[in-house]
Amino acid sequence: MNDNLDTMLRQTRPAPRRELSKHFTTDTLTKVTATPQKLTFFQRLLHPAPALIAIFVICTSSAAAYAAFNWQQIQLHFNGSTTSKMFDAKELSFSYKDCDALGLHNTAKFGVLNDAVQSVSQQDLEDNIKTLCDIAQAKQLYQSQPDWKSTYPMQNPNQPVVDTYIFSGAPRTVKSIGTTLATEQQALDAASNHTVPVSTNDAVSPNARAYNNGKQIPISTIAPGDQIVYVSHLVQKHKTGQQYDTTTDEVVGIIKLDSKPLNPMLQNKIFAITPCAGNPDATCVNAPSVALRGTSFNSDEGEGGNTKIRKDVQWQLDGPGFYVAQGRITTLDADGITFKNFNNQSTFYVHVPQSNRNPQPKIGQVIAIDYVQAQTDDHKNIQSHDILGSFIIQPY
User: Angle at CA 176, nearest 5°, toward 169 and 252?
Assistant: First the structure.
């Protein structure tokens, strides 16, 4: 699974402006820090939040000079389309250059559900890829700033000060800017399949700085109608127990984007296709949108995860020891399920006894497995104690 594209598209699901009370817990804090906890593909797939894009920012007119960032202008080429082997969909393939931040080895592929093919154009996808490239670069620009580093009491809730920089939301349209920054974004309401405006109004630091195309610009050049991403600075001081007083909550950076706004109506029509984590020769559906849903079918997996998960393997989500396999079911027996990957027809077997399957998967359905294994294990043979998540995937 490609972390950059997966993260970018996952973050195209619009989240509301974070709200921190004076009674926040470390769980709340985890959600707003610069390094949010990573979820498995299936947790991301099933996450109930609506959808758009969240990332980063930078603004200003301070006297300090900051080094320019090597901002690239992506160049795209459409390679053509094929019939999807996954779902009733068409797959569109693109190649590109001059966007190292996406980290996709210069190719990107998307599936478009057949009932939406007429409403999703090649240009729509190209515009979205360009915007995703700019967001990925904005993130790298943010990470390059030495003064935007977070400290927070993840292990020690009694630490006196929380001092964190927060990627505050999707690319937004500036409505007004001065001592406060008013923005608006169009978010997709999945229930009604209509877009709804989401507005924010945030204080702006006197030392905020702004960037465009990787270069620092006067903050006075940011104007209504501009598409931006931004970073806010939050400082909270400990009172007692889990009581905190907020002493700082302001925008410290704005990055102006020249690419088009992401189209929220695409969220329920497309899905990204990338190599599977740990099985790079196989193909997986990733960075899911509301076009797809997953239904867990392994009764060993509750809210706390698989209680039988093996403890002898050191693993990291989207890293060493973490694997994803997806494919279409070819055989069901009492002990497990055989399925073949869409791309190379690799055959996988997952040990889930029939008594543990609810609902019962059917031959021809697409399933997806998140699992952990040692490097020396047979990654095509998945034991029940390897499984992090087992899902049937299908379009809405």
Answer: 50
